[in-house]
Every structure is written in C-alpha cells, then in structure tokens.
C-alpha cells in the first residue's frame, strides 16, 4: 500500500516538474505590439469598436445555420431505417428535404444568396 502511495506521489511530482519546466521554456520573450492588441483581425485597435457590418453577412450566417441544423436533423433518418418500413422512412425524408429545398428556392428568388450587389 505504501509503495503504491509513494509511486503515485512520485509520478505527480515528476509530472508537475515537467509541466513547470515546459511552461518556463515555452515563454516568448519578444512582445509584438500587433499581437498584444485586442483586435487581430484587420481592425484598427485605436478606432471605433462599433463598425457597422453588412446585413447580408448575418443573413448568410443564418442560412448556413439553418442548413447546418438540417444535416443534424437528417442524421436520425439513417438510424431508423431498420426500425420502420421503407415507405414511411422515404416519405418523411423526402418531405423534410422538400421543405428545405422550397426554403432555399425562396431565398434564391429573394436574392439573399447574391453577393455582387
């Protein structure tokens, strides 16, 4: 029992020492003004933080999220194929895809997918 406690204690001490040495050796000495600024994505750090974004960006982001959630909702269809008959499974999957395709066609007609305007 004591040997187990001593080996666990030794392992913890050695791992802590290795982590502390690695932390000390990995510190960068050179401080870059651009890297330490709060904005690293092309914004001027001295300018206003409330720059207006295009509404089209947010619309495309919402469309992406909708179709991303659509993929996660289609995943259970592959699981339940063995639990239900093929006609019900096919009908449910096709209706779900049809509703999403109609939504995509509506967005296309409204011009939400056009970037050159």
UniProtKB/TrEMBL annotation:
Family statement drawn from the similarity comment of this UniProt entry: Belongs to the complex I subunit 3 family.
Q: What is its EC number?
A: 7.1.1.2
Question: Where does the UniProt entry say this protein principally localizes?
Answer: membrane
> Looking at its record, which EC class is this enzyme?
translocase
Describe the function of this protein: Core subunit of the mitochondrial membrane respiratory chain NADH dehydrogenase (Complex I) which catalyzes electron transfer from NADH through the respiratory chain, using ubiquinone as an electron acceptor. Essential for the catalytic activity of complex I.
Protein name (record):
NADH-ubiquinone oxidoreductase chain 3
InterPro entries attached here? NADH_UbQ/plastoQ_OxRdtase_su3, NDAH_ubi_oxred_su3_sf
Q: Which GO terms describe its cellular component?
A: mitochondrial membrane; NADH dehydrogenase complex
Per its record, the protein catalyses:
a ubiquinone + NADH + 5 H(+)(in) = a ubiquinol + NAD(+) + 4 H(+)(out)
Segments traversing the membrane:
6-25, 57-80, 86-106
* Compartment(s): Membrane; Mitochondrion membrane
Q: Which UniProt keywords apply?
A: Electron transport, Membrane, Mitochondrion, NAD, Respiratory chain, Translocase, Transmembrane, Transmembrane helix, Transport, Ubiquinone
List the molecular function annotations (GO) for this entry: NADH dehydrogenase (ubiquinone) activity
Question: What is the membrane topology here?
Answer: Multi-pass membrane protein
Source organism (scientific name) = Procambarus fallax (deceitful crayfish)
């Amino acid at each position: 029992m004591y040997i187990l406690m001593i080996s666990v204690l030794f392992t913890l001490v050695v791992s802590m020492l290795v982590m502390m040495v690695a932390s000390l050796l990995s510190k960068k000495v050179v401080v870059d003004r651009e890297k330490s600024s709060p904005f690293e994505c092309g914004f001027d750090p001295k300018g206003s933080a409330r720059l207006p974004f295009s509404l089209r960006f947010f619309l495309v982001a919402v469309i992406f999220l909708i179709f991303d959630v659509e993929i996660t909702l289609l995943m259970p269809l592959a699981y339940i194929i063995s639990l239900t008959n093929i006609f019900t499974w096919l009908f449910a999957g096709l209706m779900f895809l049809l509703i999403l395709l109609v939504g995509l066609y509506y967005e296309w007609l409204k011009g939400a997918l056009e970037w050159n305007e």
